[in-house]
What we know:
Blueprint: H1 2-18, E1 23-26, E2 33-38, E3 44-48, E4 54-57, E5 65-68, E6 78-84, E7 89-94, E8 97-98, E9 104-106, E10 109-114, E11 120-125, E12 133-138, E13 144-148, E14 153-157, E15 165-169, E16 180-185, E17 189-194, E18 199-204, E19 215-216, E20 218-219, E21 226-232, E22 236-241, E23 247-254, E24 257-265, E25 271-277, E26 280-285, H2 288-291, E27 302-308
Parallel strand pairs: 20-24
Antiparallel strand pairs: 1-27, 2-3, 3-4, 4-5, 6-7, 7-10, 8-9, 10-11, 12-13, 13-14, 14-15, 16-17, 17-18, 18-19, 21-22, 22-23, 23-24, 25-26, 26-27
Amino acid sequence: MKYAYALLALWASQAALAAAPAQINIPGQRLFPESLTSSADGAVYIGSIGARTIFRAAPGAATAAVWVAPGADAPAGYLGVFADDRSHTLWACSLPQATAAGVAAVPATLHAYDLSSGAAKGHYPLPTAGAVCNDVAVGADGVIYATDTVNLQVLRLKKGGAALEVWAEGEAFGPKTAVMDGIAVLGQRVIVNMLATSSLFSVPIEAGGKAGPIAAIVLDRPIDRPDGMRSFGKSSLLVVESGGAGKLSRVSLRGNKGSVVTLHEGYPDTPVAVAVVGSTAYVLESQFAAMRGDPAAATKPFKATAVALPKP
Length: 312
């Protein structure tokens, strides 16, 4: 009987993946979503800066619903989110909360939520003053990595660990204004991107989990203000380019060289993140121009749009 139930669950999951909608709508005003991720069953989770909320679209659903609602102690807003099926955890970066004097009353924090219920499982403040937790990824061994945008630091939370620690940092990442943003784990290395300098860097995961030498990745064509990024297959990345017309690109890596292919172009409302459901990618647009108060940028309905993917 248990085997039959397992088969039914598998078939239901496969049906949901096959029926991926062309668009996932996120209801609400001034949400300014910043990141999205997917779990193995095809559910999509979306972090919002403006609503201080995490939304969830059920497998195959075309509309997301509130999943983690803002409470009295809600973070100032969510940036990167990452669904880790192995630990049954949704990891989410939150912005620091400032006092009237501009001092961070609550530091930037990495939060852990139960992947089924949304119940809080833990929280891990970033260790360096002035930090901004931007994005998060998880290695095959269960180690969590996150980016500190301001301090150009890759942070690590060991499996079962109690606190984040600085794992990789240094001038090799570029100037302090480089804006460390997206992160992905690809095999035995961590890849991060720099939004302001439009660059990618590789950090090997060496014996014992130590960070190896930081190396720039040389690309065969420039990328324009990379933001959200996910691993794709054994040796590729999906990268959202937020500059220009906005693109979703695939970067195929061989060592520290990368070949870039544009999969889709034309995201007018600032593409910021990508998640994969089966053979479909969803690209999220933030509408940050409206958040910044641009009078020519009235907010529109918020959405993530599907793109058919090639084989990894």
